[in-house]
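Team,

Forwarding the record for the chain on the shared tracking sheet. I've put the sequence and predicted structure together so nobody has to dig through attachments.
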Amino acid sequence: MKKKLTLLIVLLININYFCFAQPPQSSKKADSLQVEYITKELELTSDESDKLWPIYNNYKNEIKSIKKEDQSDQLVLEEKFLNIRKKYKDDFKAVLGTDERVNKLFVAEKNFTEMLRKELIKRNINREGT
């Protein structure tokens, strides 16, 4: 009886995880919105866009791999992010032309992430309020 009760509790606790998991396509939607946002912010031409996004996707994949690592030392993590940005700066500059536009890319990326974060918080508040 005790084993059945424990199993039932474990199942009930974990059902919450499965019910509220985000579908994988939400990440793809966020990525496409980010592409649209950055393209608009940088006023990319179609030629620039064709050249930039493959480089940006490689950059983003490296950032994601760092995020999967041990995050106990925040300073080391931030240093790794900075090194990746430095590594890709010249590649971005080759496409965008100036340091100013490269910096604008990094600012647009940060602004988009902040907008996305605020939207998720707003949606969670609305979900909890109803």
